[in-house]
Fold this sequence. Notes:
The complex is a heterodimer of chains A (311) and B (162). Helix content of chain A is 41%, strand content 14%. With 311 residues, chain A is of the alpha/beta class. In chain A, the strands form 2 sheets. Chain A has a 7-stranded mixed sheet, with helices on both faces. In chain A, strands 7-8-9 form a 3-stranded antiparallel sheet, with no helix packed on it. In chain A, a hairpin with a 3-residue loop joins strand 8 and strand 9 (247-250). The longest helix of chain A is centred in the last third of the chain and has 22 residues, at 283-304. In chain B, strands 1-7-6-5-4-3-2 form a 7-stranded antiparallel sheet, with helices on one face. In chain B, strand 6 and strand 7 form a beta hairpin. In chain B, helix 1 crosses helix 3 (114-161). Chain B starts with a strand and ends with a helix. Classes of the chains: A alpha/beta (311), B alpha+beta (162).
Amino acid sequence: MTQIDVAQASRRNGHVVEEKAPTEPGRRPSLLRSALDRVAAAAVRRIPKADLDERDPDFIRERLPLLWLAATIWYRAEVRGLGNIPDDGAVLLVGNHSGGNMTPDTLVFTLAFNAYFGAERAFYQLAHNLVLSMPWLADLRRFGTVAASPENAHKALEAGAALLVYPGGDYEVHRPSWKANRVDFGGRKGFIRQALENDVPLVPVVSIGGQETALFLTRGEGLARLLRLDRMFRLKVLPISLSLPWGVNVGDMLGHLPLPAKITIEVMPAINLREEFGEDPDVDEIYDRITRAMQDTLDALAAERRLPVLG
Amino acid sequence: MRVSASTRIKAPIETVWEIATDPTAALTFMSGVTRWELASEPDRGLGARYRMLMRIGSAEVGGLIEIVEWRPPYDFAWHSVTGLDQRGRFRLRTESEGRTKAEFRLAYGVAGSGLSGWIAERVAAPGMRSHLERSMRQLRRLAEQEHQRSRTAARQSESLSA
Lengths: 311, 162
């Protein structure tokens, strides 16, 4: 499959990919290039389209005890402020993201939300396409995880669901551990446009502890660019960490065994963007205010912690 | 999984019943309960529904419950409509003049959750039991205070009329 075919397949799945010039006629691609093209094509082909009906409340209820055991015993998790989330209706939950590909913050918040509001309340989470294309993560769709795209976000919010997004995504989740207490969305502001276009309240969700579940060394942005992962897999990072059981873990594609770091999550009061910022708000101003407020909350959570991992 | 706790209260059974069945008192004496809201009419009695949440471990669990047994001033019981599967019961019996034995029983679980559910029920049991025991102690304190207040008011009223 050529790069053009990959681009066309991506567009069919609702994702825009830069089109590259075809290989020059008469010039055969290298073996390595062909292999990479085939892997990329396979990843693109496996990206599932968002189907909100894949969320299975009965499955979620039956899995909540397992999530509860992990959150209570392993992470000694604490979630505060769930009463700040409107009791019903569409709402955009915006979180800082931590913990590499194991995302302990998502596990803890999913448990807390479903236990508090009931598995019957529609609750979806956006995730990178590559996550949903992994066969061993197929059950995530039953939890309500859908591929991250503006179209899927709009679909969930229009259906009146609560939607959890992590604007920082792979960029933030693989940040070095010594930058753990920093909210870093990488300048991504799509979540604000989503809240404005769908006219839904925005609820910031701040978590701490995820970056202590392994020693995250680098995002590997340069390495990702060198290997053209952005163009093939829409991955801007190739992280390197020290984690169990691998030791040196490059890419974190197979996950890792997270350390039992205490996870604390604080849900902040809901924000009605037009009420707070006017009918025609400045997206950059909203971004600065929200990230600053989240950073203040994260600083307060960090001040409560005495030791890494232990909390 | 079933847990229970009981206590002996130096107050008449009617006094204990009033407090135990008052939805506005639930947050006062029920330990660990973070929400107890009226979800329908009537506000008490058979068919009354409440939205309740209890903090257990890392989550606030509960859901919508409905009163399914109502036998004043002796027994009332509820079962869950949504959320955590649960069946709760308060049982009050007169031990002697002005003394009541109160018992709080709770059965809970998540149907279909398999081995993880079985383990989670047992891991949660000590915390649940602790909440029930603390609830009974607080119910005893409230009931005895209310009984003492009533007796004092009655004595003052008698002395005034005399």
